[in-house]
Amino acid sequence: MDKIVEILRNGGVVALPTDNLFCLAADASNEIAVSKIFRIKGRAESTAIPVLIADFSDIEKYTMDQPTGLELILQKYWPGELTIILKKAATLAPNLSPGMDTIGIRMPNSEFIRSIIRELGKPITGTSANLSGEAPAMSSEQVELSLGDKLDFIYENATTTGGLPSTVLDLSTMPARILRHGAIDKSELQSTLKLHKIDLSI
Fold first, then answer.
1. How are beta strands 167-170 and 63-64 bridged, if at all?
2. Rounded to two decimals, what is the model's pTM?
3. What is the pLDDT of residues 181-201, one digit of tens each?
4. Any idea what the CATH number is for the domain that residue 102 is in?
């Protein structure tokens, strides 16, 4: 972990296993490091990159204008497979979501990943470890084949579970919107939001 954190502090990019796939991790407050992610993936810089956090208190540090009821929703689904779209704070690199005032943020299930974030003292990027347009990598071997010569470090001999990606819920405006259907069932999420008096756009 010390080696990974040192690379991240120095603006490097590493491939790490998260809940169900490998991600490309960089310091999400470092604009130069975030630019490397776009180049490595061959991804248009007009698209947004989500971030991963370690603790509930990080929400206050990296987002703004949190809606009423957010804390109760997150206590139900975090750590886990729900990415929340909120207004982003100036503490994050602006090129994470160029031209947008929002950011996707998630607390992963992996205690290892959360420990890295705590040690770094910054959130990390959580975009999938693959070239743009390719299927996400689920093992260190797949990352090596696709991106090996472009990365500063790959967590070796690891395989993730695969499966559905995180559900993406936009709470930056009301009514709320599901931007990507994923691991969390829509009807269950809708019931949770209704319980906390948050309308969901169909």
1. unpaired
2. 0.94
3. 999 988 989 999 988 888 888
4. 3.90.870.10
